[in-house]
Write a structure and sequence with these properties.
With 501 residues, the protein is of the alpha+beta class. It has 13 helices and 20 strands.
Amino acid sequence: MNEPCEDPYDLAVIGGGINGVGIAADAAGRGLKVYLCEQHDLASHTSSASSKLIHGGLRYLEHREFRLVREALAEREVLLAKAPHIIKPLRFILPHRPHLRPAWMIRFGLFCYDHLGRRRTLPGSRALRLGADSPLRPDMTRGFEYADCWVDDARLVVLNAMAARERGARLNTRTRCLSAQVRDGLWYLELQRVDGSRSVVRARALVNACGPWVADFLRDGLQRQPRHGVRLVQGSHIVVPRLYPGEQAYILQNEDRRIVFVIPWLERFSLIGTTDREYHGDPEQVRISEQETEYLLDVVNRHFRQPVERDDILHSFSGVRPLLDDESGDPSAVTRDYFLELHGAADQAPLLSVFGGKLTTYRRLAESALELLKPWLRDMGPRWTAGAPLPGGEEMSDPQRLAAQLLDQAPWLPTDLARRWAVSYGSRSWCLLGSATGLGDLGEHFGANLYAREVDYLRREEWAQTAEDILWRRSKLGLFLGPEQHAGLEAYLQREPLKMR
């Protein structure tokens, strides 16, 4: 290892998914000196391949995960207040299929769902009669309705990374931690950038938040044997043209007692997922299988009047959930709760490894992680994240009102662009607009109202480097741009180098 030339950090975090950036942001806000590295882009794996939900997990009640559900339900409204631009309430309709679950069981589950967590703004559940205007098949005449929230998952990760940086943390993407070892009471991390250059940083405490690679990093990077097993469970989604009008989502019960969501997405599309299957390959290479595709199509076609064919699929994505192995025989029954494994005696540099977790509970997971590390980091401040807005959530509560304000100040902005900026960047939209007085000031146009000014903002402020970063994780415009437009954006990125933070 090369010798480091800078003072040690209080905390080093390996992994730029939701848990890693959540811990980094919390720690930085408590006054700790924090370093984070991610081997690829932020949210490039599990954290951007979710069902895009902030939810309590209604089906977890069947597995008696009451602690997890209670914590997740309480977090819905905390996160809604922290990031009202990227999180919004969403109503779910659950068609009643009596041969799968009797009505009394669903009513009881929804009663628990309404009362396990504190609700301030989200409405309670209710029974429904499904009429002729329902997009569901005619034999489905009864249902139930309840509330959860939708989230732009990748942007949730990026905003937490920004929050960490704005409180003094240092974050390096496309930087792999090759190994870490303890010397003289400190962790020494050997890092390698994508260009092959290497460096070393030191830290008093280390967090392994490598997601699907958490056990691999313990074995290969730290030369330690995990005390607990990791269960890799693949979840896949498909995207099709919008199946029905309205902003409600559907939660469909299947014969195997699993559920599938159908969620309105990006105004024009329906997002369908997810699956649960064991995965044994490289998490970086995960792809939807033929069996998963058929499974999702079959569930949807058992419920909706409008048939969905394979040719209707416009896009698909898959992720691998790194769950704690609780020896359940059914992948869908493996706990979604998180587990924090702490190594280190009082006189040793501590190591904390993160297993499992979900988007909804990332903030509480971060608080729990720092509570465990407190004996080694005694100078940290108190908890603070519950009431602090994420970047863009400052002084705003209604993205529609913000879009109207943008259009009032800049009437030349396309309406769709103002709305997209409002729900993506919140109050940071004013930084994008800057002193522009016309579309020409926004620079080169790549299609779908994506201009060079936004691209450069994403490169400068949000660690974006490639067209994939911009189109699929930062903006979700990949579904709207064709191959030539995609190539045009890539050419711009190569032609116009921008100095990164």
